[in-house]
Amino acid sequence: MRVIGLISGGKDSLLSCTLCSVDHELVGFVHMEPKEGQKDNSFTNDSPHGTTDGPKGEGIHVVGADCEVDSVTFQSVGSSLLQQALPHLSSLPLIVAAMDDQAGELGALATLLGRARQAWQADAVVSGAVDSNHQRDAFEAAAASAGLLSLAPMWRWPPARVLWSCQLLGLRPIFVKVAGAGLPVHLLGRSIDYLGEPDQAMRDGWDCDADEQLAAAVRELPRDDEAAANAAVVTRTLDRAAARFGVHQAGEGGEFESFALSGPLYDRASLVVGTTHTVLVTDDDVAPVAALSVDSFSLGPPAASSAADILGKPKRNLSIPARPFYLGQPSHTATSAAAADAGTTPSAVLVDPSVIVTTLPGDVRVVTHIPVGDSKDLKAALAMGLEAAGAGADAAEVAFVSLWLPNMSAYGEVNQAYAPLFVESQARGAPWPARAAVQGVDGAGRLDLVLVPGARRNIHVQSVSNWAPASIGPYSQASLTDAADLVAGQIGLVPWTMALAGPTVDDEAVQAARNVARVLADGRQRGAPVGIVVCRTSEQALPHPLLQRIVSTIPGADMARVVQRHVARLPKGAAVELVAVASSTLNPLEVLTTLY
To answer: Which of 69, 335, 444, 552 is found 20 to 30 A from 385 (Cα to Cα)?
Structure first.
């Protein structure tokens, strides 16, 4: 795909662009700068105005102001430096737009992405989102508005992995702002060279062996005495701040900002910092706020290797959809007339006698065997299920949907008919339910619902990442409730490629288990008992050793809470799909066996 890089100058944005360039064509950068009126004069650069476009090694003065803007979405420190340095550093073009008060930050970003998409015929945009749901949601919304797929290759990466990857790829980021407890002003200007240990507790479902290898490779990088001393200071400071104050070691919570000086995408030159001065915003013994203003810089040699060469990864044929389902669909907050038409439950609905309602503790209701003939019947089926649930059941309470299709080849058509079912409840703030879809061996179409009272939140990651498969259809990866976390059906898709793992069924099954583990790690019921239904297309049961691998991959799972079900077909021709529920108050397997 042709991909736009959303760049701030910091390590996360440049690292995400660098990782993306291994498998896709990066066509240019876009950058959001503060409006002139938003600039904080306390960050005004004291250097002479004017630039020098001299040969490499000659000093270049930075014009304008490095400023701090009250934004939880964009980094502003280093904006002037980035804009003036990037043409010297990279051959890729740059389009800049200002944060707009009237359109809002997201409106301005969507407009900027639209311009870039048209100029460069792009398919996607890549961002450096790591752990901020607000930031990722914002980027996804702006990307969708511009008709682009959102890519977030580092989503939910452990902090150490982010820092190690920057070091291995030669980005050489430095601290340009500190604002977190336990981060002293003397960090400013230091190279972010981290040599800490992998954090096992944060890596449910991740490849721990790969992290160990990455950490070992970073430790073996050449360092002189000064660099080794700096690495020791930075590692000790970040680890202590994380342990004592909960600081994110990669600065994802705004605890610090960085600026990358080099890297494979800087094919023209690297940046050498010249004169600087420090601006102290808040003088505090525990959590000072300060920024490094770069007055001048010079140019050094560019990186010698590409990201693919460093990582040893060839270009791959990927199956990431250039036009995911949610692009071009009606807004979730549709017009009132459309919402009313989509979500109204008829006053009198005839309930089919085959429908079964099971009530579990906490007034959790499981409604099964709602008949569905074809996609046109989905609205009536939902209404029937709500009527059967009784007690004023509402579509907003639907936390999980199990969709049994007469024919999996109609999956796309069903998605189009399914999306409007929850327009009205979404307009009232209810998130997409989690969902699983299978074709049963009997060929019958049916709808099963799990209704959970009370407020809930969901996991709805639309960005393609290395975390878990993106939600590119009308569903959430999980519904998170006080009673249980209900995970959408997970097939063995490799998240970054959105292609099935292979070549064996074992590979698919273990990848599906990793996907479940990563979703559950973000849930409310983390650490609670987990029940699993293994849907398989083979008539033969999965062997015991494979089930043990699945269980060992998912924290909270147990062989006593695993059942298998034979189905005819699964989405994308998968051989295995895992449906999981985690709960500390319900019997998770009882919830699942009521459905399957």
So the answer is: 335
